[in-house]
């Protein structure tokens, strides 16, 4: 991996004039609008970056954005990668290792998720304070490179408590409905059955999605502080499970995005 990572990082440095980001950002499904807040200096298509996986989803742009946001140098993934697209866990999380090698000190992650908690409604935000990993394998499976992180990384606090506290304060000041909760990561791409939603709630989940946790594991492996937030785009509770389409999920994510953007922007400003 070291040689592959070196090749990718050197290409990016060459194309982006040795841009040194402080903060990495992953923008989830329907949540690419934060890019409009960034004073963009460079932009690279995933498809043009050596060894970089290409997003196969038509609603994910597949770009690395480099620029300034509230006085901080950032690198943003406009479009993430998923296990269900056919990639390995190592490929999905390769961009996190690239961002670390480029110099990021913090990682901010967003996603669209389904609510499992009857108190968390469609269109609300949920800051992730813990997770349950139901993905089929770990991105750390295989030989460990001790230069990147320990063989058995601690996961007692995968999400930075200070970031969570600040973000909740920002949400309260802005009168944004925002919860804290446990995110369950599943494979997808199918949505869950009613029985599966019930099971995920019973085991302690507040929201369910198909991403985020692999990236968080690798970030913790490399000692990168993480903040993650979900836009709740559908509801998996109640007596009757209402069918939901991708179009509805995207519409809900886009409608809630300005609230998420406000929290992320102000949180970055506070660093």
UniProtKB/TrEMBL annotation:
Q: Which GO terms describe its cellular component?
A: cytoplasm
Q: Which GO terms describe its molecular function?
A: purine-nucleoside phosphorylase activity
Q: Which domain of life is it from?
A: Bacteria
UniProt cross-references to SUPFAM superfamilies, sorted A to Z? Purine and uridine phosphorylases (SSF53167)
Q: Which GO terms describe its biological process?
A: nucleoside metabolic process
Which keywords describe this protein according to UniProt? Glycosyltransferase, Phosphoprotein, Transferase
- Quaternary organization: Homotrimer.
Enzyme Commission code(s) on record: 2.4.2.1
Q: What is this organism's lineage?
A: Bacteria, Pseudomonadati, Bacteroidota, Sphingobacteriia, Sphingobacteriales
Q: Which InterPro entries match?
A: Nucleoside_phosphorylase_d (IPR000845), Nucleoside_phosphorylase_sf (IPR035994), Pur_Nuc_Pase_Ino/Guo-sp (IPR011270), Purine_phosphorylase (IPR011268), Purine_phosphorylase-2_CS (IPR018099)
Does the keyword section mention Transferase?
yes
Q: Boundaries of each Nucleoside phosphorylase domain copy? A: 22-268
Entry-linked PROSITE patterns: PNP_MTAP_2 (PS01240)
Pathway linked to the protein: Purine metabolism; purine nucleoside salvage
Name of this protein: Purine nucleoside phosphorylase
Similarity comment: Belongs to the PNP/MTAP phosphorylase family.
Briefly state the protein's biological role.
Answer: The purine nucleoside phosphorylases catalyze the phosphorolytic breakdown of the N-glycosidic bond in the beta-(deoxy)ribonucleoside molecules, with the formation of the corresponding free purine bases and pentose-1-phosphate.
């Amino acid at each position: 991996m070291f040689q592959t990572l070196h090749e990718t990082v050197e290409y990016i440095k060459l194309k982006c004039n040795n841009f040194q980001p402080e903060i990495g950002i992953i923008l989830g499904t329907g949540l690419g609008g934060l890019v409009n807040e960034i004073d963009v200096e460079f932009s690279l298509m995933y498809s043009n970056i050596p060894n970089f996986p290409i997003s196969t989803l038509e609603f994910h742009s597949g770009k690395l954005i480099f620029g300034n946001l509230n006085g901080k140098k950032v690198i943003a993934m406009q479009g993430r990668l998923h296990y269900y697209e056919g990639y390995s866990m190592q490929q999905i999380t390769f961009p996190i290792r690239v961002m670390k090698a480029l110099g990021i000190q913090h990682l901010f992650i967003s996603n669209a998720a389904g609510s499992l908690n009857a108190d968390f409604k469609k269109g609300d935000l949920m800051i992730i304070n813990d997770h349950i990993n139901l993905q089929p394998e770990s991105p750390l499976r295989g030989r460990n490179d001790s230069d990147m992180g320990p063989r058995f990384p601690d996961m007692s606090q995968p999400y930075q408590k200070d970031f969570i506290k600040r973000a909740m304060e920002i949400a309260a000041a802005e009168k944004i409905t925002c919860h804290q909760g446990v995110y369950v990561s599943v494979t997808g791409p199918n949505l869950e059955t009613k029985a599966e939603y019930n099971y995920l709630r019973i085991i302690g989940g507040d929201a369910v999605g198909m991403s985020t946790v692999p990236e968080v594991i690798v970030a913790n492996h490399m000692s990168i502080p993480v903040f993650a937030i979900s836009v709740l785009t559908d509801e998996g509770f109640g007596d009757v499970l209402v069918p939901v389409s991708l179009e509805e999920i995207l519409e809900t994510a886009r409608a809630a995005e300005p609230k998420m953007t406000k929290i992320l922007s102000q949180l970055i400003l506070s660093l």
